[in-house]
Amino acid sequence: MSLSHHSPSSDITLRINGTSHSLTIDNRTTLLDVLRERLGLTGTKKGCDHGQCGACTVLVDGERVNSCLMFAVTAEEREIVSIEGVAALSDGGELHPVQRAFLDHDGLQCGYCTPGQICSAIGALGEAGRGWPSHVTEDTATGVADVSALDAREVRERMSGNLCRCGAYNGIVEAVLEAAGAQDTAPAATSGAGGAR
């Protein structure tokens, strides 16, 4: 006796980087797999595929999510931004300020984690802009005043869900602080590797 395993599929429309995509997908398909395998948006990376490394981070309605843990069907009627659409979030339409800061502060080495780091940083700055506290915020009831109140300790905590095997953490922290307006815009003379987390 053979058992047939049938998985229901759905016809959905996903709005990604300002463009609508009509798809028929297996209900178990993750947003990450739709981005990479169905739409060819390979900037979002598959790292651990278990929500532990942050390489797959995208923005959904402005909030950062691990796309490997999100079923694509749950993202219907929401605004999804992958790394390919991040530049369009800036006023000038060139590089987003976080992208520019990553370049200026050498916040990348091999680059594999960089798309997730950038999306996560944008999401983290949005959270701080709304006053959300982190685990290391002194007064969690009050939260943070605004993004310019962030310091390196806050940035490390807020970015701790994104791992970098190359150890570019110092540059990443400097980049996020610059994008937050919390430090000078001149790149640091040197960016040490590792040990920042």
The secondary-structure class comes to alpha+beta
Query: How many β-strand runs?
Result: 5
Distance from N terminus to C terminus (CA atoms, Å) equals 55 Å
What's the overall average pLDDT, rounded? Answer: 91
How do the helices and strands line up, and which of them pair or pack?
Blueprint: E1 9-16, E2 19-26, H1 31-38, E3 57-60, E4 63-66, E5 79-81, H2 97-104, H3 114-129, H4 152-158, H5 169-179
Parallel strand pairs: 1-5
Antiparallel strand pairs: 1-2, 3-4, 3-5
Helix pairs in contact: 2-5
Keywords:
197 residues; alpha+beta; 5 helices; 25% helix; 14% strand
Would you summarize the structure shown here?
The protein has 197 residues and is α+β, with helices and mostly antiparallel strands.
Question: Would you give an account of this structure?
Answer:
The chain is α+β, with helices and mostly antiparallel strands and 197 residues long. Helix content is 25%, strand content 14%. It is built from 5 helices and 5 strands, in the order ββαβββαααα. The protein has a 5-stranded mixed sheet, with helices on one face. Strand 1 and strand 2 form a beta hairpin. The longest helix has 16 residues, at 114-129. The radius of gyration is 18 Å and the shape is globular. The relative contact order is 0.14. Mean pLDDT is 91; it is low at 185-197.
